[in-house]
Amino acid sequence: APDEARLAQSQASFQQAQEAAELAEAVLHELQESVPGLDEQRRAAQLAVNQESAKQSDLSARQEALKALQEKVRTDGKLKPWLAKHGLDGLQGLWSRIHIEPGWENALESALRERLSALEVSRLEMVRAFGNDAPPAKLAFYSPPAADVPAPARAGLKPLADWLRLNDAGQKALLSDWLQGCWTAPSLDEAMALRSQLQAGEAVYVPAGHVVTAHSVSFYAPDSEQAGLLARAQEIENLDKQLKAQVLIAEQARAALVRAEAAYTDASQRLVAARREGAETRTRAHELQVEMLR
């Protein structure tokens, strides 16, 4: 009877050890299947981080390069000493305050020329003294009018001022005045076709900056370092928005990488433990089987 009891005990112990070994084997198999996939996810997450970080760096570099160029040409080199002498070097040019629909920057520059960099003063009488000490390069001053007088509409003609995006009533009134009689057309051919509708002093501008009047066609080309100020300013703003969005995307990619790394590390550590446990349970089951057969 004692032998039978001992045998039953050995069989029960062997059964338990065998079940433990099978469970350990199942866990090991599952981890062996999942770890390569987690490693692939980790590599993909790292690649995504590299790509999104590179995009962020590229956007940042482009923005900084444009800002540097913008700062360099913001004020004509000849004007800087004169502006400083008269305490005007802290004023911002009009271009820094206005926005226009993308694609129409050259048309506005063509129409406004040096007035695009005009400086605001509270009263125009203040600049009268500059007649005896004129600036060494083209320079305009303005004082925004109090109210905007709507320009009369003309069938088939779209005003250049309609492409502007302004929130300031004074600037809107000022530019409506300066751009009176400035119309637009999508192409040079369409502008040429509108000549018969133009009255004295009126002109049609196309996105490239070329201008058509009733009796002339003038082709636009950048004629100074300051050309492109408005387009660059708008591109810098656009890049700023893109950069903010890209920073968020890059941060999300880095967070995903941290999660992928943690999942891979955890699974790898559990795989090592599962291999050890599997070996131990198999050894234990074998030992019990040998003991049971004695």
Could you explain how this protein is built, in words?
The chain has 294 residues and is α/β, with parallel strands linked by helices. 57% of the residues lie in helices and 7% in strands. It has 6 helices and 9 strands. It has helices spanning 2-73, 79-85, 105-112, 169-178, 188-193, 229-293, and strands spanning 99-100, 119-120, 141-142, 158-159, 164-165, 182-184, 203-205, 211-212, 217-218. The strands form 3 sheets. It has a 5-stranded mixed sheet with strand order 4-6-7-8-9. A hairpin with a 5-residue loop joins strand 7 (203-205) and strand 8. The chain is rod-shaped. The relative contact order is 0.17. The model has no long low-confidence stretch (mean pLDDT 86).
In terms of topology, how is this protein built?
Blueprint: H1 2-73, H2 79-85, E1 99-100, H3 105-112, E2 119-120, E3 141-142, E4 158-159, E5 164-165, H4 169-178, E6 182-184, H5 188-193, E7 203-205, E8 211-212, E9 217-218, H6 229-293
Helix pairs in contact: 1-6
In a nutshell, what does this entry contain?
The protein is built from 6 helices and 9 strands. With 294 residues, the protein is α/β, with parallel strands linked by helices.
Main sheet strand line-up: 4-6-7-8-9
The biggest beta sheet reads: 5 strands, mixed
Question: What is the structural class?
Answer: alpha/beta
- What level of helicity do the residues show? 55-70%
Query: How far is the N terminus from the C terminus?
Result: 16 Å
Described by its quaternary structure, the protein is single chain
Write the element-wise H/E pattern from the N-terminal end onward. Answer: HHEHEEEEHEHEEEH
Mean pLDDT, as a whole number?
86
Count of alpha and pi helical runs: 6
Question: How much beta, percentage-wise?
Answer: 5-15%
What's the Cα radius of gyration?
Answer: 38 Å
Please count the beta strands (DSSP E, at least 2 residues each).
Answer: 9
* Outline: rod-shaped
Segments where pLDDT lies below 50 for 5+ residues? none
